[in-house]
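Final report, closing paragraph on structural work. Over the funding period we assembled a curated collection of sequence-structure pairs, and we close with a single example.
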Amino acid sequence: MTSRRSSVSWVALVALALAGCGGGVDDAAGGAGGGPGGGGGEPNGEPTFYADVLPILQRSCLHCHSEGRIGGFSLATYEQARAQAGIIAAVTADGRMPPWHAVDTDVCQPQRPWLDDARLSDAEKATLRAWADTDAPEGDPADGPGDYQLPPTGLADPDLELEPANPSIVEGDVDQFTCVVYDPGLDADVFVEALNFEAGNAKVAHHALVFRVDRADAEALSGGDERFECFGAPGPDLIHAWAPGQTALELPPTVGMPLSPDQVIVVQMHYHPTGTSAEQDTSKIQLRFAAAEPEWEFTIALPGNASSAPQLLAGPNDGAEPEFTIPAGAEDHVERMVFEVPQLPADLPVLVVGTHMHYVGVDARFWIERPNPDVGEPAEECLVHTPAWDFNWQRGYQFDASIDDLPKLSGGDLLRLECHYDNSLKNPFVVQALEDQGLSAPQVVTLGEETLDEMCLGAIGFLVPHF
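Its predicted structure, as stored:
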């Protein structure tokens, strides 16, 4: 089997360059144009639960809204769904449910569909509204879609499950950054085709970054212990990122992430203590390995969080130099950033994209600007727009397209970010965050890792040829 080091060195360099090496480019307005998607019309006749509503619930709702799942209540039976008929119609009509925040807007229409897109069509929303408005008739069970099998919460058929020997203790009133070492104990090189991170305690787990780290480096950082304090990244090879709402990473059949016996997995956990109680967290990792060497390697970069020019662009509240500062009480503060893609030995297909902010954030957009597009490529291509940002429902969005049809990154391309913030009491997330800290008035917010700080990040998972 070819050594995993064949291409990982320049993969790491690309990831680092995208995350922190921008060019001195000017602030050009941009973003792909377009409008909202969706289609379909009003349902024909009076919809019933079994014939019309249950198929929608099974496809898009029951994986969360079943007994013991994260939704908090079940919609699996007629009686359960009928009791919530009005709420179902309301929260699906305005897009709050199912939680899917990458949407088509006037300034962003991604050119490819999303894998496992949970959004309802206009026709499905109209069906749910008509069912609620006609007193939620049951219909004939024989007209139903048949038995429903809940999907697993983690990976199907993992080859390896890892958890720490001892829990992390999360206490006090200051955010904690703890690195936890997970040792796969491999005796041969493998390629990871799927990875799932399962947070053990949702009360305190803010987010997690999953790194592939050389064993010797991890031992030097940890002193041989299972966990150690780590404000910064424990290494350059980020392979997964988790935040509330994130699902398992399932790579296409010809894509993998190399992992060798001389490496371990280190998870940087960002914990947000409750301030009132000591909590324990035992988070788990599941891995599934590819049967053969892949054609492509997958890695992740997180461009953003620029604190100064040239990556951070000038804003309306800045002084002589660009400054990432959100004034207390500001209702529509905007920060813009730009990052230049370094020169590459090959174009990089983009598989997964996402955005990340904290509680003050309300809207984020991430797009490519190509000074020298190839034939058939747009000069500007919007990757993702999350105009109703919700910290509690974050995830990466994977394109449902062949590798040949994925958007490409080329040397000299610009990655642009635009993040909007509401730092006023009109933002319920700000109100909650202030209450958690014993505060009642908005504070000046700056760039940082803590919950009451802010971020403006794009996530981009790209593919590199495996040599």
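The helical segments are 5-20, 49-60, 78-83, 85-93, 122-133, 215-222, 428-436. The chain has three domains: 5-21+153-291, 49-143, 301-465. We thank the funder for supporting this effort.
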